[in-house]
Write a structure and sequence with these properties.
By secondary structure, the protein is mostly helical. The protein is built from 4 helices and 2 strands, in the order ααααββ. It is 66% helix and 7% strand. The structure holds zinc ion (ZN).
């Protein structure tokens, strides 16, 4: 399978994923806005409600920021497809294996480079199977 075919296959995948993510982000934003409205309306609430609210704000923030990280990566991959550099490792220039791209269409490093960078902690998190697997672990 050549790189052009792979790019085409991945472009379809990435566009679908981007669409899905946009829908989710919009839904999350709407949910957050209505939660905020409820909070503004409900005066004299108990302390534990406030604690819960800030906890869910924090979770919401984490969720949104990871979605934005993924969105940025999808856009970067799509840009690379447009430029014709998709599927090439940004570090060593080798082709990234098709199996790796199928699992992780937004991969920018080949497996060797990825592992080396992770060992050296030059990249703070690993993006795996459509989600962030670990923050700075
Ligand atoms: Zn490499």
């Amino acid at each position: 399978m050549n790189r052009e075919k792979i790019s085409l296959e991945m472009e379809t995948k990435l566009r679908a994923r981007k669409q899905e993510l946009l829908v989710r982000i919009k839904r999350e934003m709407r949910k957050n806005i209505s939660a905020e409205n409820r909070r503004d309306l409900g005066s004299g609430q108990e302390e534990c409600d406030c604690a819960n609210a800030s906890q869910s704000d924090y979770m919401h923030f984490l969720n949104m920021s990871s979605q934005h990280v993924i969105m940025k990566q999808i856009e970067r991959a799509l840009r690379k497809i447009g430029e014709g550099s998709y599927g090439l490792c940004e570090r060593c220039g080798d082709e990234i294996g098709i199996n790796r791209l199928r699992i992780l269409p937004v991969a920018v490093y080949c497996r060797d480079c990825q592992e080396e960078l992770e060992d050296r902690r030059e990249i703070p998190y690993r993006i795996g199977r459509n989600k962030i697997m670990a923050f700075c672990s």
